[in-house]
Amino acid sequence: MKHAISRRTVLRGLGTALTLPLLDCMAPLARATETPASPLRLAYLYVPNGVVMDHWRPEMEGTDFDLPSILEPLAPVKSEISVLTGLTHDKAHANGDGGGDHARALSTFLTGVQVRKTHGADIQAGVSADQIAASQVGKLTRFASLEIGCEAGSLAGNCDSGYSCAYSHSIAWRTESTPVAKEVNPRLVFERLFSSGRPGESAEARAKREKYNKSVLDFVSNDAKSLHKQLGISDQRKLDEYLSAVRDIEQRIARADQGPAVTDDQIKLPEGVPSDYAEHLRIMGDLMVLAFQTDTTRICTYIFADEGSNRSYKNLNIGEGHHELSHHGRNKDKLESLRKINHFHMQNFAYILEKMRSTKEGDGTLLDHSMIVYGSGISDGDRHNHNDLPVILAGRGNGTLTPGRHMKYKDGTPMANLHLALLDRLGCKVEKLGDSNGRVDQLKV
To answer: Do residues 173 and 180 make contact, with C-beta atoms less than 8 angstroms apart?
Structure first.
């Protein structure tokens, strides 16, 4: 190490502000200012329509749990994840409101409340766990939170048995009546993360880059070369790896810009979205990792597909829509197609976890310093039940979590109890969330 530099050092160029990952030379100043060198992150990743529970739920509890076929992609990171069973969202059940389980599943997932059944302007849910965290720790980062997904959806109209589309397409709620729109275009997420923040300048920089076929890195090259000379060998390697990752994502987004704007007969997407759904999932996951790595935000929600999504998975040779298949009636062929879809989603989750585990940070990895929740607000899509939900908790939470286990909670335990336990670890003291009645235990041994 040659010189200590601030954790907030950025590489600047025309319309560009490239935030840096945590380098070894940043630690002394972090200690001097009592700023944690490795902040704690929280992310919620959501998949729709439930899962095939027979191929999800491990038979054994504790550390000797098995990985059923859907969970097999997690084998390389088994020691970094815990499977949680028994958690429930009672307020996603009808409770007298009739149909609309998909809308309730997503809108209740992070709020724990019974949302108002309406498709008008008088929508009402509750403040979501991620937005509670964003309101308290978001002031420490450039963006309080990041909301991303892979399906664009309207926030108005009737999408599920009299429920507003806002409920089916939004997992994050800033207030009881204000859903937070997610961004599905990787190009726009990239520009948001790496623009200077000056009005109009990012558009100018993008136009110039496109005209001369330049990378965002070309605009910060002088700053990067100057910083490189100040760093020790280890930090030089970290910086080079980070800049290579940024360039890789930028090139993949550029290829998507040149491709078709439609990925499925039923899913219309804006320009800049990859035509390959698997690539779309991975790019958005990579952007989330970069946002965490650079401490641009510490809170993220990522919806793989909207609740009730009827996307077909032609990459898996599945022509039927996902939602249609979820009403399987125990048909063996439909169940097998669903299992393949669940397995595919899990492969992409495993990709993100492996990426985070391979990203060194301070005295550990990015995954060590994170809490990542993956799950669905529906258990079995055919029954539309909201108890014994499929939930995975990954990461070590800066030493506050002990992964590598199957933890079975009493059926009916509010999912909101998990949210409160994770918010506690972020330093966000909240007495109650939705239908919570305490905190889940067993997360740390």
So the answer is: yes
